[in-house]
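Weekly modeling sync, notes
Attendees: S.R. (lead), two postdocs, one rotation student

Agenda item 3: backlog of single-chain predictions. S.R. asked that every request posted to the team notebook include the full sequence so nobody has to chase files. The rotation student volunteered to paste the first one in as an example of the format we agreed on. Action items at the bottom.

Example entry:
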Amino acid sequence: MTSILEQMKNQPNHIIDLVGLIAPVAALQAVEKFREMKTGECLEMINCNHETKKMILQFFPKSSYQLLHEKKMHPNSFSYQIAIQKTGEI
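Predicted structure, as returned to the notebook:
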């Protein structure tokens, strides 16, 4: 059984829904939100297509984030859910 504190620790600090956005616009939104975040905070991006996912991760230097998880939202879809934790500035 997971404690409430452990569940809260695993919750993202910020969530952005990228449904229907073209890759450059979605990536720009993610970068803007990431810049506003404090080190240690988590950003979850939902409804992110493959092209957008690839573009977003290219924008961030590997030293600025830790990929917490990346998974398909539904087995037969092209939408992903990605969570990253800020470890440094971009």
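Discussion: group reviewed the output briefly. The chain has three helices and four strands.
Action items: rotation student to repeat for the remaining queue; S.R. to check formatting next week.
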